Amino acid sequence: MDGIVYGKNSVLEALNAGNREINKILISKNIHTDSKISKIKELAQQKGIVFQFVGREKFQPYEEFNHQGVIAQISPIEYVDIDDFIEDKSAKEGYSSVVVLDGIEDAHNLGAIIRTCVCAGVDGIIIPSHRNTQVNSTVDKISQGAVNLIPIIKVNSLINAIQKLKDNNWWIIATDASANDNYYDVKYHDMNYALIMGAEHAGVSKSLLKASDFVVKIPMQNNFNSLNVSNATSAILFEALRQKLIFNRKK
Amino acid sequence: MDGIVYGKNSVLEALNAGNREINKILISKNIHTDSKISKIKELAQQKGIVFQFVGREKFQPYEEFNHQGVIAQISPIEYVDIDDFIEDKSAKEGYSSVVVLDGIEDAHNLGAIIRTCVCAGVDGIIIPSHRNTQVNSTVDKISQGAVNLIPIIKVNSLINAIQKLKDNNWWIIATDASANDNYYDVKYHDMNYALIMGAEHAGVSKSLLKASDFVVKIPMQNNFNSLNVSNATSAILFEALRQKLIFNRKK
Question: How far is B11 from chain A (nearest CA, A)?
Answer without folding.
Answer: 15
